[in-house]
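Progress narrative, Year 2. Work on Acyltransferase from Streptomyces peucetius advanced from sequence curation to structure prediction during this period.
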Amino acid sequence: MGTSARELAAATPDTRDRYVDLLRVASLGTVVGGHWLMAAVTGDGVGNLLAVVPELQLFTWALQVMPVFFFVGGFSHALSYRSLRRLHPDRSVYSVFLRARLQRLLRPTMAFVLVWGAAALVVQLLGGGGGMTGVALRLVTQPLWFIGIYLAMVAFTPLLLTLHERWGWGAFGGLVGAAAAVDGLRFAAGVPFVEFLNFAFVWLAVHQLGFLRADGRIRMPAALAATGLAGAAALVAVGPYPLSMVGMPGEKISNMAPPTLALLFHGLWLVGAVELLKGPGTRFARRARVWQGVVAANGIAMTAFLWHLTAMLGVYGAVIAAGLALPEPATAAWWAQVPLRLAAAAGVTALLVAAFRRFERPAHRSAAPVCGTGPVAAAGITLCLFGILGLSMVGFGGLLEGRTAMLVAVHVSAPAAVAMALGGWLLVERAGRGSRA
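Result:
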């Protein structure tokens, strides 16, 4: 029988950094709520509220909080990998580290991919795939880009942690310099495909800040926040960078896909801001009821994130199927319905979480000695990374027509992406099996 959130909360040691857990839940919750709010659905399709009301794009400078999640990930990965090294100083723990960190990430992700893949195939074999169903088949996989980036962070943790332990802020500065160089080659020299390198440099730089926090080396958060905010503002003001810190439909340049130097400075601003709030945030997280809620939310966070777009599209699909009129986005009637839409999406998400949360529970761990094959694990996570990123781009629409999307410089189809993701996951499981980490 699983341990309840109340029991886990009560058993939490005083030494645990509860603020980090609070940030993890709050950042994912903000992303989910933002997706629900930004959806501007009409009978013609799904648009973006930020495109309808461009003035709202400024709010993305506070609400585009995915950098906070990756920052928290760096902190957690540093603690986890160092713990394994202390326990087994004479052995390679890479494959064990990968499996331990990815179990609660990949198991719910693979369940999501297989359920939606099967549903998409059935729908299209029956001649469906148009209207809101077609929109859903294209959109539901888009949040998987986050999973792919997170996989890369886990994969590179040992290397980047070594660089951090040797160079500290210099290692972070190197990643910032690399991101700046990529943008220079992209915008000034017009080098094709170079921009995709910033999927690594930008997000790994934010991840590196988590290592610095783990060592207590972010001592001037106000300066970090001010530098990030000023840098992002300057780049948007004088460069080719758009105002919005999230992707906008039809835009030629996005700060998100692929990430830009402006988004990296935005990440610095957010990390500095949350570090400034560390004192009151820690006191808030120590409240018994708050901490119990954080523990419970962390136990279902990935499942809720994976299925939240499914829930939202299901709500809109039900409204359209019932023949009810949808108000024009950003009108008074539309804003009046926002609380009802958010409540309905949250309710459907709760039902989906109840159905699929079992896949987020940690699998049984063997008591066998630590073992593993590093090269096999590396190959597995590479396959999984490219498969999940590819699926986030191509979606499940057009399965029978062989629809593809460009991943870096290679066309990838949904079946190929699913095969890579599943094969990579099995390799990671095999390489790290038999561990007690």
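The mean pLDDT is 89. The longest strand covers residues 39-42.
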